[in-house]
Amino acid sequence: MLTINYTYRIYPTAEQQALMLEWLETCRHLYNRCLRDLKDWIASRKCSLDSCSLNREYIMSPDLPFPSYLEQKRQLTQWKKEDPRYKDVHSQVTQDVVKRLHNTWEAFKNRGFGFPRYKKYGRYQSFLFPQFKENPIAGNQIKLPKIGKVTINCHRPIPEGFKVKGVRIVARARGTIWYAVVTIQSDVNVPDPLPFGRGIGIDIGLEWFLVTSDNFRVGPAQFFRELQSRLKVLQRRASRKVKRSKNWEKAQLKVARLHHQIANTRKNFHFQTSHLLCDMADMIFVEDINFKMTSSGFLGKQMLDGGFGQFRDLLSWVCWKRGKYFAQVDHKYTSQICPECGTHTGKKELQERVHVCDECGYQTTRDHASGRVILQRGLSNVVPMDCREGKLPSNGVLSGVLYLDKCRSRNVNSRGLEASILSVG
Ligand SMILES: [Zn+2]
Fold first, then answer.
1. Which residues lie at CB < 5 A from ion ligand 1?
2. Do 176 and 219 belong together in one domain?
3. Which residue, of 145, 188, 268, 281, has the fewest CB within 10 Å?
4. Are 350 and 413 within one domain?
5. Distance from residue 214's CA to the centre of ligand 1 (Å)
6. Which pTM was predicted?
7. Position 247 in a domain
8. How far, in Å, is the centroid of ligand 1 from the Cα of 341?
9. What's the gap in Å between 325 CA and the centre of ligand 1?
10. Distance from the alpha carbon of residue 215 to the mean position of ligand 1, in angstroms
11. What are residue 353's phi and psi, to 5 degrees?
12. For residue 336, how far is its CA from the centre of ligand 1 (angstroms)?
């Protein structure tokens, strides 16, 4: 079973837009209501040993069932009778809201952090139609239950053999830009790409966005610096307006739209970089750093700006699509081991940008060294297909090299990236 999401821009009319915003608000209300019941239930069951709080105990009858997904879904029918608002929204959409809460709840139980939170006004930005009998897209229109036909920019047709499973409607930039994320499914089984051919290791960082084991560099992640400074100006302007006034609304909208633009620019950059890397190699290895944890440190803001986690996800997806092998390797000590002789060179401070090995005298930049270590780790975990057949590993001598020689000479930044793709292709 193969499931893919395709995202399309949609252009609802003013009425449709108002209706969908109303739905979002109802869904948010429902989500918070379910969460409140869940929280109340938990609160009513817990009682600290030394101080049994009187006002907490027995607010609820002790044999009230736990508000599970099924239980709350059952209650939903009752709530619909009491509150007509819930009935205006498509029933499967409301059911999915309950499910969404319980997914978050399950995730919280499994991981131990991230207790579901109440959604503030405007923070509930999407709803899902979980089922479709037939393809809702015809020409430049998508047919949504209860909302009607919405104009869609179907820039890429749904491939043959795929069925539309669900459609998620997403509001961006304070409900002025809309998307339909169409989940399509096919029975075909596509095997994951097997390791073969030429491998590269990738070190992701701040000084350079990434450095490969071949010392190929992609510029630092501050590529949208210009956009960022414009954002600052807009944010400052917005903060001076009287809250909730008309001008404040307008200024907020400008900020939101710019945020949206930055996110898109970043994603585009990540896609282009991923494809570039796939042009260069058949196996790609990256570190398994938890970027979320790292970003809580003093480098936090910049780490998040780079969107490294998103980049890694996109890279693995692009690799899969292009039949390239992708794997994550252990990140421990990648910057401390000498790729030439394997000696532990000791901890490097962050500002130390060079790798010098006392043992064998190998010198290179810090990120290049860890790129090479990542590659070696990756290769030690896999048996490339061409080795299984008794051939020598082709690492470093085959496919990607010619291409690489062409781009190696120049160091690419986000602007130059497109140019270099063009000039090589
Ligand atoms: Zn060494």
1. 338, 340-341, 343, 357, 359-360, 362
2. no
3. 188
4. yes
5. 17
6. 0.77
7. yes
8. 4
9. 29
10. 17
11. -100, 0
12. 10
Instruction: Give residue 345 CA to ligand 1 midpoint distance, Å.
Output: 8
User: What ranges in 191-350 are assigned the alpha helix state H?
Assistant: 225-240, 246-280, 291-294, 300-306, 308-321
The helix (H) or strand (E) run that includes residue 82 is helix 69-82
As given in the structure block, the two tokens for residue 61 are: 């009858």
Q: Where are the alpha helices (DSSP H) in 165-245?
A: 225-240
198 C-alpha to center of ligand 1: Å? 23
Cα–Cα distance, 234 to 229 (Å, whole number): 9
Same-domain check for residues 166 and 239 = no
Full domain range(s) for residue 207: 199-424
- Cβ neighbours of 57 (radius 10 Å): 14
What distance in angstroms lies between residue 373's CA and the mean position of ligand 1's atoms?
Answer: 12
Number of structural domains found in the chain: 2
> What is the whole-number distance in angstroms between the Cα of residue 344 and the centre of ligand 1?
8
The backbone region for 325, taken as left when phi is positive above 0, alpha when psi lies in -120 to 50, beta otherwise, is beta
